[in-house]
Structures are given as C-alpha cells and as structure tokens.
C-alpha cells in the first residue's frame, strides 16, 4: 500500500461576487466561503525527510532543499514541498510536465515545478514581486505571485505563480470589443465572456451579462442584494479611485479584485 501525504491548502479572501460561468449565461457564485484545496500526493519515490531549519525557504526553514529556487537535489530530481505531515520538503524524481501542464502527483511535473490544483505551477515568495513568475521557459508575461498556499500542519505560508490564461483581466487584452476578461480559477486561468452595457456604479443583474468590459457585477458583503457594476482591480496595488477599496474574491487569485 502506498503512503499518502497531504499538502497545499489554497485559501483566498472574501467578497460576495457573481461572475458569468463557463457556459457564458449562467453565473458562478463566489461567495459561498473560502476555497480550500487539498492536493493529494501519492508516494512517488520521494525521500521522506524531516524538516531541517538549515534551509531557508522564503525566509522559513522547511527542509533540505528549496522548492522555490529548485535547488538542493541531485540530477534528475526536484524539490517537492509538503511531503511530510509537518510541511517539510524532500527530493523526488522529476517528471516531464511543463509549466501550466496537467498533473496528478509531484512526479508528473518537471524540475522547479509543483503539482497544485492538477496543474504544474511555479512557487514564489513575495505577493508584490511578480518577476520570478514571468521568467523562464513557458512563463507568461502577466503571471503574478498571487496564489496563497498553506503547507502542512505547521501552516507554513508559501506562494504560487498564476498560470497563463486566455486573456488579461487587468488590462482587458486578449478579448474582442464586446467581451470582458474574467478569471475562472484560483490559479489564474481566464476566459473571454460576453460583456453587457452597464456602466460603473449602475445596478446590474448577477445572473447574466450585465456590465461593460472591465467591470463585474458585485455586491458588498454588507449588502448582499445591492449588485452594481464595479471596476476590476489588483488588490495588491490598491489602485481604486474615489475612496473605494480593492477587495479580493473567493476562489480567485490575489491579483483579481473589484473596487467597492
């Protein structure tokens, strides 16, 4: 019987929002609660190594190698996080999965990548430093260090880079004139959805296309039925005008929010 460990709980902050679903007409309710995603890691030959404070990972001592920098392991191996109950790291045979590729276990991903949410992703340290996410083979110029991860029983915080999407929701590039770009997952996948005609601050219908491109139909948590068109923003930059605050949303990356 193979051993099984658990790693990586992805938790995103709160805002009552409804965005068009995959079908274009339906709505996805993102206010049901924090999104917590446990990633099961099957035993793939990793050396079970107890945490060792000698290796500083994003300023923390988690083990004998560094999964962010991809250092500390031998040829043909990669540093995998969360393979011990306390959230330590270990060296494991590297797979061949490319950045953004599908995976089910750490060994599916190539060196320097981790399997999270069934996608091969890159780890990062600072929510305000996107540079490591935008360099290297297959990296997207819009990738951000915007996915918060809690590893193991110790609750050690790490971060992950968002994956490449079909469009950029902050600049609204990649979609046609009658479409708006929206994220579809906590890992930063995105798609173009049909845009409405509602302007900033106008009342809107959360069940279908209602707001113009670059706006989403949201309701503040204190007024769950007061839906209005709000501007998409980056909560890390707090770039809202008129005294509004850029709030994050359940189930989406930390670089996606709306001005409330």
Distance between the termini: 51 Å
Please state the CA-atom Rg, rounded to the nearest Å.
Answer: 19 Å
SS strand fraction: 25-35%
Helical residues, percent: under 10%
Please state the average pLDDT score.
Answer: 74
The neighbouring-strand order within the major sheet is 4-1-12-13-11
**Helix count, per DSSP?**
0
H-E string: EEEEEEEEEEEEEEEEEEE
In short:
This protein has strands spanning 4-10, 18-20, 27-29, 38-42, 56-57, 60-61, 77-81, 89-93, 114-116, 119-121, 123-124, 147-151, 156-160, 179-183, 190-194, 215-218, 228-233, 246-248, 257-259. 0% of the residues lie in helices and 29% in strands.
Tell me what you see in this structure.
0% of the residues lie in helices and 29% in strands. The protein is built from no helices and 19 strands. A hairpin with an 8-residue loop joins strand 18 and strand 19 (257-259). Residues 1-54 have low confidence and may be disordered. The chain has 260 residues and is mainly β. The strands form seven sheets. A five-stranded antiparallel β-sheet has the order 4-1-12-13-11, with no helix packed on it. Strands 16-17-19-18 form a four-stranded antiparallel β-sheet, with no helix packed on it. Strands 2-3 form a two-stranded antiparallel sheet. It starts with a strand and ends with a strand. It has a domain at 4-9 and 35-160.
